[in-house]
Amino acid sequence: MPDKIVSALRETLNIKRKxxxxxxxxxxxxxxxxxxxxxxxxxxxxxxxxxIKVTGRHGKEPTAIETAKxxxxxVLILLTYYSLTHTDARRxxxxxGARIASMPGFTMRMMKALTVNYKKMQRHSIKLWKxxxxxxxxxxxxxxxxxxxxxxxxxxxxxxxxxxxKIRKGExxxxxxxxxxxxxxxxxxxxxxxxxxxxxxxxxxxxxxGNRIIxxxxxxxGRTLKKLLNVKGGNVMxxxxxxxxxxxxxxxxxxxxxxxxxxxxxxxxxxxxxxxxNNAKVHIDVILLRPTIRIGNKxxxxxx
Length: 304
What we know:
By secondary structure, this protein is of the alpha+beta class. It folds into two domains: 2-106, Response regulator (Rossmann fold, 3-Layer(aba) Sandwich), CATH 3.40.50; 116-301, no CATH class. 25% of the residues lie in helices and 32% in strands. It has helices at 2-13, 30-41, 64-69, 88-95, 111-114, 118-138, 220-228, 254-257; strands at 20-26, 46-52, 75-79, 99-102, 142-145, 151-163, 172-174, 179-193, 204-209, 212-216, 237-243, 263-269, 283-289, 292-295, 298-301. Strands 5, 6, 8, 9, 10, 11, 12, 13, 14 and 15 form a ten-stranded antiparallel beta sheet that branches. Strands 2-1-3-4-7 form a five-stranded parallel beta sheet, with helices on both faces. Helix 1 packs across helix 2. The longest helix is centred in the middle third of the chain and has 21 residues, at 118-138.
């Protein structure tokens, strides 16, 4: 298993012998972080570990002292329980030139998705990215439906992004990688998501208008999501993404679930890293299974 971690870090982050690497972790993830520390040490000698406090929510900022300690490294590996991807702390580190792998809640069950055939995933991701880029230029409308009841329309706000595990200077990607995504605008309709982590496993209805949630289903799932998004701007539809990792399977962990080929996901909250202006202190992704996605009159994906 250590060899697989070394191979994945070499493939995705291209760590060089004389570079400085920082692994950011917390009390819930530190045992796993030690495995990645040992793997990184085989690629370069200058590897440090920073243990931060558990933030308590995806997208919540670490402390100012912790943020300052994240600067000055060539590579950051964020092995924390809650995601730091959509935080100002991570953005500052990218602005300083770091290559960052964000791995919130990573478990060893994800190794198959982490050691995917990257060239194959890259080809598929770029093909899909080109289709979405053409839609952006034409200002086309997306129409997403699912058998669970989703009937949602929206457009692309700005840029289309692709995450296939080739992390360059000043960039951040998830590991496991595998998605094409963007910030949506003008979203209207009914969203019925199928899963969120292990907390919500039944289809849950949300009413969307003006690119925001205006109604939560009165169910356990609806109440759970409403509580998670209970911060300023938490109800804003922040991201739409399509999974492209052929090795990823649904396991009840968003880090991997959103990468599963044949699914799409929608996030609420912070989207300033992907062209939006909603700097909410939360970012929550929900999963849609077997979607049909139309761009204009063209069906791009049918039933996943």
